[in-house]
Amino acid sequence: MAGLVQAHERQCAVCTNDFTTPKILPCGHLLCRQCVISWMDSKSEAVCPLCTCPIVEHQGNSFQIAADVVDALPTDSVMKALVENASILVMVGMCTVCDDLKAEYICMQCVDKMCPSCMKIHKKMSISRSHDVESVSTVTPERLAASRPALCADHGDKHAELFCVDHNLAICTPCFSNKHRECLDVKSLDEKMKSAVDAFASLRKKLLTAEDNLKQEIVNINIRVQTADVTEQQNMALVDKTCDRLQSMLDECRKQVKKLISDSVSKFKKSLSDVKSELEKRLGKVTSHKHLVTRATKVRPRPALIHAAQTLTDRVNSLDLSDDLEAEPWVNPSSEITKCCDNVVKEIGDELMTISREIVVAEKPVLVFHENCGTNIRLTNFRKTARKVELHKYSDNSVFSRDVMVVNFLYEVRLDEIYKPSGCCVLPGVTSVPPTQLHLPSWSDHLKDSVILWQDGVRDKDIDIFTNVTNAIKFLEVGSRVGLLVDSSNNLHFYVDGDDQGVAAKDVPYPCFALFELDNTVTQVTALPISEKT
């Protein structure tokens, strides 16, 4: 049945028995008092056995006695009452009056167990005729605990009609007259109980809302995880496809470059081969004529030598005896190789630019204020809303983006609450120092690493930038939007209500974080979803 505490819920997670003096741990779980003490004594850093949250949230003194620490924890009086009443129902056996008859009924007020005959008598007696008597089989610990009358803290047998707030005690009328007449705050018990019921209803509503929000956020996280997984698969496939294309381009480039080299060398070698062949022909003619001359010299003197000498002289003179025949010069194909490689490099660069545009982003970047912002800024709405909780003339009122700004994306805040109707001032800017490293409220010490837009320029006059920030930055109203954008040339653009006011600063430090400094009239700003600007 909904709302009823099941038997296992009345059992301690450590001893597995019904709770004895159940203590409420900081995490909200329950353990028996003695179980918590034993658990802490056995562990160097005692944590809840159900959720591992610390049993003691702030252990300022490591030498604290476990019993003292546990006694400081609140006792769950409701669970204690449920356990006690559950044990009463478990022990129902024989009739309280008739020892030899089984009890079938129980009085919800005086907890007497009765057989059918005693039940009839109980209902007729003047002192108990108004009591609720029910079947033992239908009574739950919750109902039994709820029907028990409130008894005076000093007189256990008298009903309490009043509640002393000063002493936090339920008291009877005589006790009020004798002991609590001087107390300043004594209320009707019914009134106090109604107030407590209303408080529980309010707490339950608050916790239900928080529970729904947390469950929804967990669902959102799971969706984001699934989106990230799908995005990972898509991007992995895209990278593989692109790398295959790049590999194909490299293979084709390798093939073309090798062909250029091979063709160049082949042409040069052919030229050398032709020269060699021609030289070998010349060598053959020279060698054969050498043999003719040699033989002629061996048969002298003879008149025929005169004619032979003239003939051989004419023949040798007609021969090409030169050895200076040159091949065509080798043409180095390095320029063509360079050109081919340059083309491939360009194509690869284009491919990489394409894949960078095609890469699927699992989530669009969002402007979320960092928890390390102004000392008087409270972050709400999952850290997307900044509300000022204190106003001091010289306090820091700055909020920072949690993540590095993405190029060509507009980061905007909307002014939700302003004290002065005449308008307010928001000074936007960027800083290269991560918010986690800023020591607020003295973050302005890091000004040399920041660019803050002022009404008439940039706060740090040493920064060499061009600015055209106008007085539009000064007179902003509720609903006004102030934005920043860093372009691919590291120029900082200033936006008001979605309109680009132009380049406010050049060569800003990148990577950088967006910041918005609020004047004392601004009490709340909201981070808006960022949008890509082309």
In short:
Helix content is 38%, strand content 17%. With 534 residues, the protein is an alpha+beta fold.
Explain what the structure shows:
- With 534 residues, the protein is of the alpha+beta class.
- It has helices at residues 33-42, 66-72, 77-90, 116-124, 141-147, 173-178, 189-298, 304-318, 334-358; strands at 22-24, 30-32, 105-107, 113-114, 133-135, 162-164, 169-171, 186-188, 377-380, 385-388, 398-400, 409-418, 426-431, 450-454, 457-458, 481-486, 492-496, 499-505, 513-518, 522-527, 531-532.
- The protein is built from nine helices and 21 strands.
- Strands 9, 10, 12, 16, 17, 18, 20 and 21 form an eight-stranded antiparallel sheet that branches.
- β14 (450-454) and β15 (457-458) form a beta hairpin.
- The two termini are 59 Å apart.
CA-based shape:
elongated
DSSP strand tally: 21
- What kind of sheet is the major sheet? 8 strands, antiparallel
Class per helix and strand makeup: alpha+beta
Helix content: 25-40%
Number of helical regions: 9
Distance between the termini: 59 Å
Note the run of SSEs as H and E.
EEHHHEEHEHEEHEHHHEEEEEEEEEEEEE
Oligomer description: single chain
The average pLDDT value, as a whole number, equals 79
Strand content: 15-25%
- Stretches where pLDDT falls below 50 for ≥5 residues? 455-471
CA radius of gyration is 48 Å
